[in-house]
Amino acid sequence: MPNTNDTLPPPPFKIKMVEPIKLTTLMDRKKHLKAAGYNIFNIPAEEVYIDLLTDSGTSAMSDNQWSGLMLGDESYAQCRNYFHLESVVKEITGFEYVIPTHQGRSAENLVCFALNLDETKVAISNQFFDTTRANIESIGAKAHDLVVQEAFNTSVYHDFKGNMDIHALEEYLNQNSNVAVIILTVTNNTGGGQPVSLENIKSVSQIARKYKIPFFLDAARFAENAYFIKLREKGYSDYTPIQIAQKMFSYVDGCMMSAKKDGLVNIGGFIALNNANLYNRIKERMVITEGFPTYGGLAGRDLETMARGLNEVLSEDYLQYRYQQLQYLGNKLEKANIPILLPVGGHSVNLDARKFLPHIPQSEFPGWALTIALYEMFGIRCVELGSVMFAYQNEDEKWVYPELELVRLAIPRRVYSREHLDYICQSIIELYKSREKIKGLRMTYSPDFLRHFTARFEPITE
Question: Which of 36, 220, 369, 455 is catalytic?
Answer without folding.
Answer: 220
